[in-house]
From TrEMBL:
Keywords: Membrane, Transmembrane, Transmembrane helix. This is Uncharacterized protein. The chain crosses the membrane at residues 46-68. It comes from the Bacteria.
Length: 70
């Protein structure tokens, strides 16, 4: 059961990485030349994403898998 949840989690993470890099690329590529908020938004996005990834990984590893299979 853990392997199934881990594979789903890794698939979600891969899809999230693809779309987040696409958003970051387009934010940097198509933002206005004088707009300085992109330098603030990108690190904030990565910090919040890392925080939420850690929370999701914590909850993934605290699921009582033995109780789910019995």
């Amino acid at each position: 059961m853990f392997i199934i949840f881990l594979l789903i989690f890794l698939l979600f993470l891969a899809l999230w990485l693809f779309f987040s890099f696409a958003v970051i690329y387009h934010l940097r590529r198509y933002s206005f030349p004088g707009w300085t908020a992109a330098r603030f938004v990108v690190p904030l996005f990565f910090l919040l994403s890392f925080f939420f990834f850690c929370v999701a990984a914590y909850f993934l590893f605290t699921i009582p898998y033995a109780a789910l299979t019995s």
